[in-house]
User: Fold this.
Amino acid sequence: MRGSVVNFRNKAEGAARAIDISKLDFSNCPVRDVMQQIGGKWSTLLLEALSQQPYRFGALRRMVPDISQRMLTQTLRDLQRDGYIEREVFPTKPPSVEYRMTDLGRSLFEPLSRLLDWAEANHDAVRAARARFDQTPP
Amino acid sequence: MRGSVVNFRNKAEGAARAIDISKLDFSNCPVRDVMQQIGGKWSTLLLEALSQQPYRFGALRRMVPDISQRMLTQTLRDLQRDGYIEREVFPTKPPSVEYRMTDLGRSLFEPLSRLLDWAEANHDAVRAARARFDQTPP
DNA sequence: CGGGATCCATTCCGATACTG
DNA sequence: CAGTATCGGAATGGATCCCG
Assistant:
């Protein structure tokens, strides 16, 4: 398993004592840290869009019709912050801004894409399981 | 791309008119529907744990020391609802409950695991990008 | 056109207390 | 042991208005 589930080495290792949870830094866990961002409501949708080709702000907005302007801006900024996408401003009037994937983003999207393929292929099975669960007596 | 980004066929296709967003059912989008659950704060951690072997409630609690009892219960129920894990109750005194992955869960964890591998391998790059972004002038 | 700033609703999550 | 119930705070996301 990737280190431990929480990805840290207990400094009191060898001492079979209880560990002080408050002293641990769980943000060092890659699973948590990366999945946090990927798991956002709009992240994968935008990564999928930008995996095809660069798009401008307005184009992305049209591709994901129910995203708010605020969340589009914010999600794009967060993806840029993590190094998955780049932002280029063209000083035209009115200005235009283009977003494109970075190499890091493309390397992320490789395994991510396989997961999305799975989601599409097994969506029915998941929905069926859900329906079954919801119908059994409480 | 998997259908459109939002995964629906515009029924007014061919008519280049604006579509009525309020009439669309975005929950039919597998990407959204599956990633929603996977993206939860604890889901991947628990899936990773259970991908190894079945575990009891208390064991999972110890493997993820900072999860609350409430969230452990709830996340496990949600994962069970989606068909990724099974729950078996042994009517001992006191009762013991074991959680194990289903075939569906194992098939999900295959691509998911690749993504977690990526996260572990590229965590430093992500953190570096983040630090760079946060240091550039506001 | 591509945002920033504000305000508000919802949802998520943790802490605590109680139970078969 | 493995939950359930309730509460409150934090985080998340949407709506609206403004701006260069």
Observations:
- The two ends of chain A are 35 Å apart (CA to CA).
- Chain A touches chain B through 58 residues (CB under 8 Å).
- DSSP finds five helices and three strands in chain A.
